[in-house]
Amino acid sequence: MIRINIICVGKLKEKYLRDACAEYEKRLSGSCKLTVVELGESRLPSEPSDGEINKALENEAAAMKPYLEGSSCFNIAMCIEGKQMPSEKLSKTIDNCSVSGKSIVNFIIGSSFGIADSIKSFADMRLSMSEMTFPHQLARVMLLEQIYRAFQILAGSRYHK
Questions:
Q1: CA–CA separation, 131 vs 92, rounded Å?
Q2: Which of 61, 74, 120, 145 is the Cys-Cys partner for 116 at CB 3.0 to 4.6 Å?
Q3: Dmax (CA) of the chain
Q4: Is the pLDDT of residue 28 over 90?
Q5: Spatial CA neighbour of 107 closest among 152, 141, 71
């Protein structure tokens, strides 16, 4: 069974978002081994400089790196400049990972300031959910739903219409 890790910066604050994530985590339990790793968010002033932001992103990158290394990992950085793809293609991407010997798929969600360039460069793929702007904390719920949808597509379920 493939392992899916969501490596994310910060904790979900609102109960309704935690509940939504818990529902998709429960639904995914029969399809994959899912782990959500919440890393600490760097503290920044209300008006941070570019240098302060870059330093914070690199500190967050250092915390991410141990989860991303290894030949069995396929790393996907969730970032606005990433490639957009339909759900069917994400499903095939996950399926191709397991066929090609990648037993771990890591989805990386950065802070509200994004992901360090060093992590984006290290990633096997950059993926964007949309050109639209969404609340940062909603990204995890949306990603979990798409991962669930991907497994339902692979299973031939009617969930994906």
A1: 22
A2: 61
A3: 49
A4: yes
A5: 141
- CB-based contact 124:82 (threshold 8 Å): no
- Considering the entire predicted model, what is its pTM? 0.95
3-154 has which CATH code?
A: 3.40.1280.10
Listing DSSP states for 5-34 in one string gives EEEEES---SHHHHHHHHHHHHHHTTT-EE
How many CA atoms does the CB half-sphere of 27 hold within 13 Å? 17
| Other Cβ atoms within 10 Å of 26 Cβ, number | 11
What does the domain layout of the chain look like in residue ranges? 3-154
CA distances for 147 relative to 5, 22, 54, angstroms: 11, 14, 30
Segment 33-74, tens digit of pLDDT:
999 999 999 999 999 999 999 999 999 999 999 999 999 999
Amino acid at 48: P
